Amino acid sequence: MIINTGQRTDIPAFYAEWFANRLKEGFVCVRNPYNPSQVSRYRLDPSVVDVIGFCTKNPAPMFPYMELLRAYRQYWFLSITPYGKDIEPNVPDKHLLIEHFKHLSMQLGVNSIGWRYDPIFLSERYSKDYHLKAFEQIATALEGYTKTAVISFVDLYPKVKRNFPELKVLVKEDRLLLGKAMIEIARSHGMTLKPCAEGKELAEYGADCGGCMLISDYEKAIGKRLHVPKKKGARAACACYLSCDIGAYNSCKHFCKYCYANAEPSIVMKQSRLHDPKSPFLIGNYEKSDSIHDVPQQSWADGQMSLEL
Known about the structure:
This is DUF1848 domain-containing protein. This protein is α/β, with parallel strands linked by helices.
């Protein structure tokens, strides 16, 4: 099966010690975000976990614990965007992130890491020319360290509109201009451009619009076929296989203005004070009202076949 860590928060950046403790103890508890008393308990054991998926803006706090991950196959997405502290207050320097990206790629292999440049929005400072120049610079630096570049154009979720009211969606003309140019830039540096939940708009220009985190991507990362149960995408426009996320909303302290997972900074800080690195839960601990469900788990990997995919 697949354990994901990055749809709701950034575990490597802010909760690396907690995750290391979960690996040592061999299980993790996760509250249903819409019904918190419903708790799923997952085993963290390489015999039943085929891949651990990470999505982060700062992998470095996890580096001291990489030995604990050695028994697990992994896939990492590292977001490197062109925004400054006005947009991403607590994201590390981009030059440092590029070095972290290279470190992970050399440790895990180019098929086990992808670059995310998202979300893309336009403003007076972050113009189309600014984006294309930044995308070219980062792609040049990452050449040979990944085969995947993922982009998306900003979506105005309710939380985003509340925290970033001046934000506007990109019109089709701008999406096509940026998308076509980025496809060519990515290709020139040995990468396939994958739009995230953007439909088929860029397919005719050479983008891979099939999804940015498919079973085939996991298979290439681990070198084995995965026989997975059918599952609906996270949203209508999403074809990715995302399941078993162990994070919690309202807990990411990057405080990016475009974030869809945080309601507002004050709630994040309140939640953070409830974090205990020794707890089975990312936020808080057991409650009397908890109904705990041990999730049935089994390996989906084809034990007879190891592939160069």
